[in-house]
């Protein structure tokens, strides 16, 4: 024996969820509860300081550290999203700050090393030229054209000047 079906309504079988739809002549309010549209959970907002911490850590690292810590504190109190962004901004800020400090130390050490090399106390360029506190006077006998040729130079060198 087959279930009775009215000729004007073909049998559609159960739907995919195992529930058969109500008949066409079914009156609302009797038997089935009224169906409401599905409500999705509301997404929590992302903390603005967390985003700011990530951006600031790439531009000016110490500011990213400060904003990251403030954002983590706010997220703990309000339950907002963005904890990962705040942590990333804080970590990047710390790493870039340490790299910056090391870079400055290396630059300053390099500048000092170059300055120490140029102005070493043991080696003075001017003292190596032979200038001393004694003054040497060269007396050349002759007229206005004192050094007229190579023989004059040899005479001066022979005197030990």
Main beta sheet strand tally, sense and closure: none
The number of helical segments is: 4
Radius of gyration: 47 Å
Q: Give the CA-based shape.
A: rod-shaped
Helical coverage, percent range = 40-55%
How far do the termini sit from each other? 142 Å
Low-confidence stretches: none
Mean pLDDT: 76
Taken as a percent bin, the fraction of beta residues is under 5%
Structure at a glance:
The protein has 161 residues and is mainly α. It has helices spanning 48-59, 61-78, 83-118, 150-158. Helix 1 (48-59) runs antiparallel to helix 2 (61-78), helix 1 runs parallel beside helix 3 and helix 2 packs antiparallel against helix 3 (83-118).
Describe it for me?
- The structure is a single chain.
- The chain is mostly helical.
- The protein has a domain of 68 residues.
- The protein is 47% helix and 0% strand.
- The chain contains four helices and no strands.
- The chain is rod-shaped, with a radius of gyration of 47 Å.
- The chain starts with 47 loop residues before the first helix and ends with a helix.
């Amino acid at each position: 024996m087959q279930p009775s079906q009215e000729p004007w309504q073909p049998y559609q079988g159960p739907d995919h969820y195992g529930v058969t739809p109500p008949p066409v002549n079914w009156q609302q309010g009797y038997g089935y509860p009224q169906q409401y549209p599905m409500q999705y959970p509301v997404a929590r907002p992302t903390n603005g300081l967390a985003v700011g911490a990530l951006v600031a850590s790439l531009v000016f690292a110490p500011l990213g550290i400060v904003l990251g810590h403030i954002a983590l504190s706010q997220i703990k109190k309000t339950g907002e999203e963005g904890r990962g962004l705040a942590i990333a901004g804080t970590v990047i800020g710390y790493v870039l700050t340490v790299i910056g400090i090391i870079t400055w130390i290396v630059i300053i050490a390099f500048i000092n090393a170059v300055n120490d090399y140029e102005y070493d106390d043991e080696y003075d360029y001017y003292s190596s030229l032979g200038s001393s506190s004694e003054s040497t006077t060269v007396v050349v006998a002759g007229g206005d054209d004192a050094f007229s040729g190579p023989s004059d130079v040899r005479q001066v060198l022979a005197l030990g000047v």
